[in-house]
Amino acid sequence: MQSTTSRPLSLLVLGGTRFVGRTLVEAALAEGHRVTLFNRGLTAPGLFPANGTANGSTGAGGVETVTGDRTADLSALDGRSWDAVVDVAGYDPAVVRRSVAALGGRVGRYVFVSSLSVLADQATVQDEDGELLDLDGELAPHQLYGARKAACERVVLDAYGERASIVRPGLIVGPYDTTDRFPYWPRRFQRGGRVLLPGAPEDAAQFIDVRDLAAWILGCVTARRGGVHHVTGRTVPFGEFFATCRAVVNPAAEPVWVSSERLLGAGLDPWMGVPMWIAAPGCEAVNRVDVSRALAAGLTHRPLAETIVDTLAWDNARGGPAPGEEGLDAAAEQRLLDELAR
């Protein structure tokens, strides 16, 4: 989505040098906006030189980096104002509350990047009005992240009202994704041979390219889009995802499906024990999230093949994940194939 404003915007990004933040800054610069980064300077310091982008090209906008720790002191931002702040790194409601208090009325809009993990019910399809996890409620350990994000949402909404934009992505994929959930698959098909595919072809997958997410976030500012939106991709059958990987990466690779029952029987973690495979009880709707509100407001998705090809190019350029950080190492996959494939 392109900018709908005729003037460059001034954006404050809390964070901005990792996956989502980095892509957002690159997109903002490409549209000629001015960006201020506020972070501790620990991740990729110097990534964005003044008036430049991460790859060294120069856009009409510019980047200023202000070093500071939002958990303790935001005074380095005193006396300044921005059209919007984009909070890509808010996980603790107390920290977000401190940011909200420090910025006050000096930002026109507060865009908070939340998560679909805030939803209390992951077993049935929910829209944006679904019940949220509550930090004061009875929570399982894996629900704490979502509950904290939900509490952060409430802080921003209470403070900014209609000038709050809550963006709830699900699985975010594309270049700079170091989790090795999505990157594992293009790399695995590239290696070829027998490729273990988890579950069944009709199982659901759902994700969003980080560049499409960044465009949506910028649109929240340029189009003055407030409220809460689920911002992820359309549901795609696993079979379609893997078939596209094979077609654009290595048609000679041999797909071998192994059912969820067999994988669970072998003791695999039902939450991405094989990358992107989810067979945990109570998570039946995780990859079937309703995104109709965001689509009606202009959310667009690039072709799946483009995301696969671009992610593989980035993954190859970085040399793949560090040892021990692979989504599923080759030896473990081979053992599963030997034991479970029929």
TrEMBL record:
InterPro entries: Epimerase_deHydtase (IPR001509), NAD(P)-bd_dom_sf (IPR036291), NAD(P)-dependent_oxidoreduct (IPR051783). Signal peptide: none annotated. GO terms for molecular function: aldehyde dehydrogenase (NAD+) activity. Residues 12-225 form the NAD-dependent epimerase/dehydratase domain. One of its GO terms (cellular component) is cytoplasm. This is Reductase. It comes from Kitasatospora phosalacinea.
